[in-house]
C-alpha cells in the first residue's frame, strides 16, 4: 500500500510516516497538491533550497497503475490541507 510521509526541514524531520493508503485513497489525497515524481530514492528534505514543509508519497513496484509508477513523489501543499484530506477519508 502507498505510504505518505510528512517532511519538515525546519524541524530537522527527515520524514515521519503519516498514513498508509490504498491506491484510491492516495489519488484523493494527492489531488490536493502539486505532485512531482522525484525518483526511486527518498528525497533529502534538507537538500533543497527551500525550507518548506512537504509530503512524500511512496509507491512500491507492486502498487503501480497507469498514473503511479514505482518510486517517490513530492506533494507540495500545506500539510494542514493534506491532513484535512486524510480526515475526510475516514468519513
Rg over alpha carbons = 12 Å
Q: What spatial order of strands do you see in the largest sheet?
A: 2-1-4-5-3
The chain-level structural class is: alpha+beta
- Helical content (DSSP H or I, runs of 4+): 10-25%
Largest sheet: 5 strands, antiparallel
- Uncertain regions spanning at least 5 consecutive residues: none
First-last Cα distance: 20 Å
Whole-number average pLDDT? 85
Principal-axes shape call:
globular
Please provide a written account of the structure.
- The protein is α+β, with helices and mostly antiparallel strands and 91 residues long.
- The protein is built from two helices and five strands, in the order ββαβββα.
- The chain has one domain.
- The chain has a five-stranded antiparallel beta sheet, covered by helices on one side.
- The chain is globular, with a radius of gyration of 12 Å.
- The model has no long low-confidence stretch (mean pLDDT 85).
How do the strands and helices of this protein lay out in sequence?
Blueprint: E1 3-8, E2 13-20, H1 23-30, E3 34-39, E4 54-59, E5 71-76, H2 79-89
Antiparallel strand pairs: 1-2, 1-4, 3-5, 4-5
Helix pairs in contact: 1-2
Q: How do you describe this structure in short?
A:
The chain has 91 residues and is an alpha+beta fold.
Any descriptors?
2 helices, alpha+beta, single chain, five-stranded antiparallel sheet, globular, 91 residues
